[in-house]
Amino acid sequence: MSQGALYGLLTEFESPSLLLEAAAKVRDQGFRKWDVHTPFPVHGMDDAMGIRGTRLPWIILAGGLTGLAAATAMQWWMNAIDYPFVISGKPLFGLPANIPIMFELTVLFSAFATFFGMWGLNGMPRWYNPLLTNRRFRRATQDRFFIVIEARDPAFKLDQTREFLASLGGSEVEEVHESAED
Amino acid sequence: MAHSSFPRLEDTNISLDGLGGRVFAVSAAVGVIGLAVTFALGAAAGDGMRHFGYSYLVGFTYILSISLGALTFLPIMYVTKASWDIVIRRLAEVMAAVMPLLAVLSIPVLIFAGRIYGWAEPETAALPAMAHKAAWFSQGAFLARWAIYFVVWSFYGLFFWRQSVAQDSSKDVKITLRLENYSGFAIMIGAITIAMASFDLLMSMDPLWFSTIFGVYYWAGGFVSFFAVMTLLTMGLQNTGRLTRIVSPEHFHDYGKGMFAFTFFWAYIAFSQYMLYWYANIPEETSWFLHRSREGWGKLGIVLIFAAFVLPFAGLISRFAKRSRKLLAFWAFWIIAAQWLNLYWVIMPEFSEGFTFSLMDVTCFIGLAGIWLAAITRLAGGHSLVPVGDPRLEDSLRFENA
Does the interface predicted TM-score (ipTM) exceed 0.95? Predict the structure, then answer.
């Protein structure tokens, strides 16, 4: 059995309330690269984890404004510059006629920005997650609640972090490795 | 932790008690004085109460549109089995239940109909283009339609309110199921009557002009104002120690979403109406806009684009603004003013070729708003401010935005 680099440390809890308490302690220790895994959404978890607002809206705003600018420029260039053609006596570049496309491209680019921005912020596409090699972790979709602190967290020190996780009152702490063949 | 400390009804005051009497007295006084001043100003204008008629129409159609917003909000909440709104639903119920009062307040419009509506002027009525509309715009037919609108709206307004109040004590789940069953039909009837009423109340000032989307335009302005009024009423109650905690930033967030979404919806409809007429450029269709793009009305139209769409859209787009009490209150006041301005821009060009503004336009709105507020206060005073018998009230108290 070959083991890759250390991905992180995992510990398991039996109820959402235990998990919430433990998550608040991990937050207070100043960890950044860590996550919880639960079979269902747990109310209050965002606060307990100290998750700040997402940057996604700004990405969407940028996407929307890009769409708006692209639609305006495209219609202006096509209708007024590249192929000027008077249609029913309207100006070559008449704002009312262009607004529907401006609206649609704003919506389209916003939707793209939302979808792919979400991918980017979540580190997708990702074909494989080391956590999925852990047998114990499979119950994260059933009846167990997990905290995982990743090794790339600046505050991560194997022995100290293991000790800290053990002190949270969950089950024993397990190491998770990259590309392990279980 | 948030999940372990959901607010309970016992934590706050859910009755108007002493406040009801004071608000009723003050707003009724403001209403009566406001209308009396308006009437005096109208008589002093020396134009046979013509200006008064139009001022009254602006104020009346605006107040009516807010109650119509409540009347559409309720069945939409029932058919979608929404629960976020339950804790504040009683406010919408009383706003819809004052329809009989609005029927009474509509009488001055009928009295001055001859000065307001183009079809009632002999010259316009004699135009060849009016020949096929003569039956529709006869006095009898107009009055009959008017009666149907207000009877239907009063029926539904009182129905939703009375059933909900009955549930306060009976806690009967069947009432919720019954209201859910009736709501689909109520939405359909509402859509038809509101559209037709907007044709009669507003569009028929210029009986030669027509726009099929006009009903949606009128309704959208009322619906966005409804959310603004709900925001301010709820905040007012909370400032006096009522509904505190049980109406949380989560509920205000939804008011904000309502204001934001229907600000855009209103603009979308307004533009849809404009663009097709601009594009086709047919005289009988463009006349309405041509008239409103000249002599100062055009400038007001530009102001309206920013006041009723661009600024509130930008101001309410972020989650932060929707969850900030101060910003939300600011935009609620703003939207009420902007949507009033919208109806002013729709109605007043029919009164005057050039831009005009009179004190009575404002006093009339304040007077009608006072009477309206007095009426909803009176209705709200008799019962709990929260529909305590609703089986899903608990969901509403625990509501959190995803």
Answer: no
